[in-house]
Specification:
single chain; 5-stranded mixed beta sheet
Length: 148
C-alpha cells in the first residue's frame, strides 16, 4: 500500500476542520456527495477537490520542491425564504474556519477564492452556494507524499 499524498491529507484535514465544533445550524460536511436527495435533508454541505495547478516557483525549474494550488469546493445547500440568505451564516462560518489554515503544517496558506450561487429552477426557496478555497502547499517533485 502506498503512502497517502499531501493533497489527500489536506482534503481530509479540511473536512475535519469544518466538522470540529460546528455551531447550531451548520450541517456536518461530507466528502464528495454531490447533492442531497431530499429537501428535508437541508441544510447540507459537501467538500471535494476540483482543480490543482503545479508550478516550479519553490526552487526553480530543476529544484526538488514544487508548489501546488489545490482548489477545494465546499457546496452548501439550503432552503428558506430567501434561500441564499439562509446560506449566508454558513458561508461566513466556513471562511472563518478555513481562512489562513495550514492544516498542521501540510499547507502554506488557505484563501477563499470564489463563491457561486445556484437556485432550484422550480423554486427560489432552494439554493446552493459553491465556495472555492485555494490551498497552497509544497511537495517534493518526485514524491507527492512528502513535504520539503
Amino acid at each position: 500500500m502506498s503512502a497517502i499524498s499531501i493533497r489527500e491529507q489536506i482534503i481530509r484535514a479540511a473536512e475535519a476542520a469544518v466538522n470540529n465544533g460546528t455551531p447550531a445550524g451548520v450541517p456536518i460536511c461530507v466528502r464528495t456527495a454531490m447533492q442531497p436527495s431530499e429537501q428535508d435533508q437541508l441544510p447540507a454541505m459537501t467538500v471535494f477537490p476540483f482543480r490543482q495547478t503545479t508550478n516550479n516557483k519553490a526552487t526553480g525549474r530543476w529544484g526538488d520542491i514544487v508548489t501546488h494550488d489545490l482548489y477545494l469546493r465546499f457546496v452548501v445547500y439550503g432552503a428558506g425564504d430567501p434561500a441564499d440568505g439562509v446560506l449566508d451564516p454558513i458561508l461566513v462560518w466556513l471562511t472563518k474556519t478555513l481562512a489562513g489554515q495550514q492544516f498542521g503544517g501540510l499547507a502554506n496558506d488557505t484563501v477563499e477564492h470564489e463563491i457561486n450561487w445556484q437556485y432550484d429552477e422550480g423554486t427560489f426557496q432552494v439554493a446552493a452556494a459553491a465556495v472555492d478555497f485555494r490551498v497552497e502547499y509544497q511537495t517534493l517533485r518526485a514524491d507527492a507524499t512528502q513535504t520539503q
